[in-house]
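Let's do one together. I've listed all components of the complex below, 1235 residues spread over four lines.
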Amino acid sequence: MRTLLTRAVRALAVIALLGMLTMALPLLLTGDPAVAVLGVEATPEQLAAFTAALNLDASPPERFAHWLGGAVRGDLGTSLVTGAPVTAEIGERLPVTLELLLCGQLLALAITVPVAMRSAWRPGGVVDRISTVLAYLLLSTPAFVLGLALILVLAVGLAVLPATGWAAPDDPVEHLRHLVLPVLTMGLTEAAVLVRVLRADLIATLRTPYILAARSRGLSPWRLLWTRALRPSSFSTVTLVGLGLGLAFGGSVLVETIFAVPGMGRLAASAIEARDFPVIEAVVLLSGVTVVLVGTLVDLVYGVIDPRARHAAAH
Amino acid sequence: MTRPRGAELVVDRLQVRYRVPGGWIEAVRGVSFTVPAGRTVGLVGESGSGKSSLAKAVTGLVAPSGGSVAFAGGPVRHRPGPGGIQMVFQDPVASLHPHRTLVDLVAEPLRWAGVARARRRERAAAALADVGLDPAVYGGRRRHQISGGQAQRVAIARAALAEPELIIADEPVAGLDVSVQAGVVNLLHRAVADRGASLLFISHDLGVVSALCDEVVVLYLGRVCERGPTESVLAAPRHPYTRALLDAVPEVGRVPPPSRLPAAEPPSPLHPPPGCAFHPRCPDAVAACRTAVPAPRELGGAVVSCHAAAPQTPSTEPVTSPPPDRSPP
Amino acid sequence: MLRRTETRRDALVPAACVAVLALVAIGAVLAQLLPQLDPLRADFQAPLRPPGPEHWFGTDATGRDVFARTLAGGASSIVVAAMTVAVGLVVGGGLGVLAGFARGWVDALIGTLLDVVLALPGLITVMVVVTMVGPGRLTIGALIGLIMVPAFARIARSATLTVRGQEFVQAARIMGAPPLRIIGSEVVRCVLPAVAAYSFTAVTVAIVAEGSLSFLGFGLAPPTASWGGLIAEGRTHIATAPWICLAPAAVLCATVLAVNVLGERWGRSRP
Amino acid sequence: MSAPLLELDGLSLRFDGPAGSLHVLESVSLAVAEGESVGLVGESGSGKSVLARAVLGVHPGPAAPSLTGRILLEGRDVTDGSSRRRAVSMVFQDPSASLNPVVRIGRQVLEAVPPAERGSRARQRAAATELLRAVGLPDPGRRLRSYPAELSGGQRQRVGIAAALAAQPRLLLADEPTTALDVTVQQRVLDLIGELRRERGMALLLITHDLGLLAGRTDRIAVMYAGRVVEDGPTERVLAEPRHPYTRALLAVTPRLSPRRRPPLPQIPGGLPDLREPRTGCPFAPRCERALPECATRPPLLRAGAGHTVSCWAAEGVPV
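Okay, and this is what the predicted structure of the assembly comes out as:
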């Protein structure tokens, strides 16, 4: 109970500090942010209006308090570029990113668990060596290179899938066709990391006395891995998957740019180019809050995975 | 209050507690005893008794949460040079720096005392030879190149070279084979006996303690059950826990008597029972044991904390002075 | 028989990795020195030439030599990676050691600050700051380093906690060793190797992140060559002149792979 | 006479690794009769735990050892690793490490029962409850849903024993089953193992480093040193009249409750031989106070009395 309370206090402190840090971002601009954004030709009235709209005269803590007040009422401000409410912009983009990320993580897990199990069962065996080499190759291929390679092969070479773009779910077939390449890029990149982590943890678990005991009682390898070894080995993997999902609000700028997917990442990138502060602040803050919340959630999941961790949440 | 005399260790109502997830562990709950100068005292307890926490508090590695530890009339300080406290750890390999050679390891206390390199290596080599390790063969080895028993010999040589007035040994033979244990016990005995230093020997093994120690302190869940001269405690244990412990100690060729303890499991140090901590397992428990912590009483030469322990012919048996006031032989 | 081939491969793989990294480093230096390898020299007569004896990696849309530009891109990666590791090691390592030794409220405060950094969307934050303070190899390297501070700090903190709890450190304390000397020598002995092992990972993250930033157009300003930037430029010609993209991509992947493999060997060689 | 339940016939075991080979067992012969209780005593490096694992047919880590000689179970040769289920099961050393921390106790105790034979959920519950009751765990019905961390060390070892019983083995191996437990708990656990053995007519191979545990608990004692059985005989005879110098030395150094035994205590000088080399002669000779020149060659197996054998050049007896 106590640890839960300290966790909550700490999470709130992190969010508050993050808010002030985000609100201090315009201060990085040299000189008057209004001039920096609108240019020297802007009239004093325009500059004043800009400053007032962003509440730039206030200190970062005050600006954060103001932002928080609006956020509670569902008002995240207005985009400087489109003039639309930031909530509307995000509401349009977020489902796309969430779908992408969820599918990507699921694909990563679907690859990771069986491959890591086969590798860990016979470390140094054929399966292990092949998967290790592949994992290292993937690990060393940045998402933007992998994405381009996939386009080159599947879209340009074989021409079975669209190279870029997005289709609304109204047309399920086209939607899925457009989903394949970005999800593949995300899933493979993530799987390379997860396989290495889960394999190492599984190998450690398979050496424990309790696995030896279970083996001596005649459990089949399949049951041993799935029902006895997987759960105690999954801490780091769960953490990484949680972290990946937590960054959903920030979106995956790279994958969305390569495949021209209209998600949060593209929204963030264009907002940064245009110095559209209300949008930038909303994206950074919402992303940060999600990471903190998911982090807390992952701690709770630990308790489900391992009864020993139920009382020991603090590190 | 006992006035400390010479290099006497006085532990007075010591308390140690640790923060753990889900609360506090009161590892040591008001322990008092004395190690008189030149004496060997055994501290016996099973897991959860608080014996290791006690060792750490006495050596100043953790701060007590209550009570006091006094050595030679003052607080315990870590200072180089002779006359202080040295410690021998349970895991001898872990207590040696992984990168240093055995000669340098043994010479460590001299290094901090400012002895010149050549001189301290010379003395360290002699100390190694003294514990049965040929410096020509072992001097250049490191901790991973020797066995556990040899590592404990190195640790004892190192502690002895510091010329302490008190050595604290925390389960020094627990991880060793019986064929090696006796050698380590003999070395420890020699390390203190030769110079009239005192020894606080912490162990779960009454057999080893009985052979080595002048006095014994029995701990259960952070409190002292019974303390007194080894002969008296072994011959006529007054506390039911001491009796149970003596019954349970494996003895070659002895068919153990059936256990008198009720089937209750040892309680967790996180939730010690109220009153006398032993009462749920005690065959002789009376009503008072469930509510009141028994005060230490002097019974036939030993000090016992038990409501049920009766003085055996108190009028005729001569009452010897309590252990803190015993003079060194 | 088997053992011999195993050992030969064991020695061969790291050697190959070192060779790859050495070539990238030498190339980066040569690109700064030799006029033939000027990454900006455009041969307008020969745009989009495929790889051949004259232009090993071909030429781009304005006739610049892709080989020269790739070598120059290596220089950017090296500078950014060095800066990242420097910031991560000094700031992250320092904070981690401090948190591990002080514990208590100092540890909690440092932990909270690191959680704040951890909660930031990394790439987006770097993009925001770069657009405002201007791009530059050192700026980008420092920013990536700051984003990686929590990871460095976590490793340094746990190594410090391990050192603290080790019995030989406690033994040294009891023997009267000056506490600062114990801390100093043990930090160097235990914490530094642990953090150094993580530096390999940091190098790969820095190279990939710098590439990603340049690819997205938020990295180094156009005349400065960067692998990510070269790949982004080549993307428009991917169907007709894939070498503009593929050459820097291959070198980038090979470099990251070499660092990854060396890092894994380094980590495995320590107990 | 019928064949013994377990028979080891000249069993040698070697672990081969990149740094060389470890000769852990060297031509060990040992028999356990149906329903018999045998104590296997040795210090670390004697090979007693490896022997138990060889009988059980599992080894930790990916490297399988190379075996020569034979392991016969109920007259069946199982040296090649064929299934021992239903014949042998093991109680492991550290109950905290040998129970899976994330699996409920009810599931773990039934691990040894093949899924096909488990029956309905209700039957499984009943079977698991019965096993936990048999090992004296209080409130067994409720404990089914507990995790190992919720039990004390002694209770965990009771669960470990229950899991070993589930297969209804005819031979129970107990590898230092009480080393991780406190002495006041140790006695109860050993008594429980003894009772269960008698009730169920199982044979027991109790592996320990402590000679003090065996009196009144085993019919026979086999003493191991450096991968060999050096002495094997009825418990009382071995404890009262040990024939091998190592057994004698071990008895002399085992701590006793006696304040009159002041230091220096008797000790065995020297240390274990290097297991990376095969032992040519008697492995104990370098530490033996009665060593003879012959000890450089393999000592003969001598009969020193009824069912009492010793492997020593200096001992008296009739060659077997």
